[in-house]
Amino acid sequence: MDNLCAVPGVRVGHAGDPEGLTGCTAVIFDVPAVSGADIARGAATGTRESALLDPLNRIEEVHGILLTGGSAFGLAAADGVMRYLEERGRGVDVGVARVPIVPAAVIFDLGIGSPRARPDAGMGYEAASSARRYDFAQGNAGAGTGATVGKMLGPERAMKGGVGSAAVRLEDGLVVAALVVVNALGDVREPGSGEILAGPRREDGSLADSVELLARAAGRIRAAENTTIGVVATNARLTKAQANKVAQMAQSGVSRAVYPAHTTYDGDAIFAAATGEVEALTDVVGARAAQVVQESILRAVRAAESAAGIPGLASKG
After folding, report:
1. 169, burial (CB in 10 Å: exposed 0-12, middle 13-18, buried 19+)
2. pLDDT tens readout for residues 182-199
3. Which of 38, 124, 151, 172 sits 20 to 30 Å CA-CA off 238?
4. Facing residues of 13 across strands?
5. How far apart are alpha carbons 229 and 90 in whole angstroms?
6. Hey, where are the domains in the chain?
7. At what angle do helices 77-87 and 121-129 cross, to 10 degrees?
8. Residues 83-97: what's their mean pLDDT?
9. Which Pfam family, any one of them, does this sequence belong to (predicted)?
10. Alpha carbon of 257 to those of 99, 138, 218: distances in Å?
11. How far apart are the C-alpha atoms of 83 and 93, rounded to whole Å?
């Protein structure tokens, strides 16, 4: 498998509303995973339980991670993932119960489908229940169902974003993989050539350079409506501080594929999770994490199909 499930013990499940154009994606760990996060790159982040991942705080491991649409409303879907895990005896033993730790991050997709369609606990439970080690759907699936990119000329001139995933395996047994939901303000470019793959559409259908548009587009940009969120998983043995460093380094993959990245209108957030099977240098894991995040972003837009009048690359021709 060339996706997040390439990491042993990691399962992925999608659930969504294809009419309301929203959804969520649950990442389930068969054993608790040491986790960290980098959520400070954008200025419009929506998360849940992310403070627990600070190295200064006590909780070391997580049982699942949720990526979801629905803006802040969609964070309710994490309740369903927690219920799924609790039913299976998973969570931190607090004496009177087991409390599953499920960090979550959201994208804003209320403007493309129905603003009343939002992931809830039921949808989160469905995503967790469907989690398998398999070649799951990319593009318009799960949390990528309502994702869009390239909104410098307004949401009506955007292109379809989505969810993408990639993995790399090294000869020493190290596996590093990512799953990313791409809902960025900026455009997505081919790193080698600089070609804009998905971005703001001019009236003639050609794609504009988001960086060039930025100064004069400020009046039409709406805050808190854009973000790139994702999960990096590895079978490396990492401490909580090292996992946070890997998440930080993984954000470089966003800036290699999205132009501009980490703006004041984006809520970019990356979680990192380590299952602890092989020894590896933190910098090696982080460097590979940036690579698979970059590739995941490219796959997300290449697999995205048109929806609600917003064109996607997979529907062209």
Report:
1. middle
2. 999 999 999 889 999 999
3. 124
4. 26
5. 25
6. 4-304
7. 50
8. 92
9. Peptidase_S58
10. 37, 17, 21
11. 15
